[in-house]
Amino acid sequence: MRVILILLACVFSVLILVNEIAAPQISAFEESKCTRYCHNVVCKHQLIKHGDAEHGNLFWKVMFSLYRKNILMLRENPLGLTYEQMNLLVYVIIVPAIALLLLINLLRKNYG
User: Fold this and answer.
1) DSSP string covering 17-44
2) What's the pTM?
3) What is residue 28's DSSP assignment?
4) pLDDT, tens digit, for every residue of 2-60?
5) Which residues contact 37 (CB under 8 A, 6 or more apart)?
């Protein structure tokens, strides 16, 4: 059990480290690759590949809708945090913590 907790602590540390040392993203559109522009607006690369949200295939419509809702929920949060802060809170702290609690519970039931 201690080994699993140490490994998960290492994973969290790597996530935070990568986030902190990563180079800032380019916010302008670039023809050759996705940038922060694609994240903030709509990825034109994906639109070219799959069609827009109205005319694309069903999978693309569903994924695009979920993606946009996720971004909007992180931006328009009730805590008054910035998008970046909320993203870290949800995807680096809350979701992994829930996964850790579920894993610990599962291990206790099976190997307890």
Assistant:
1) HHHHHSPPPP-S--SSS--HHHHHS--H
2) 0.59
3) S
4) 777 788 788 878 877 777 777 666 777 787 777 777 777 767 676 666 665 566 677 77
5) 26, 27, 28, 29, 30
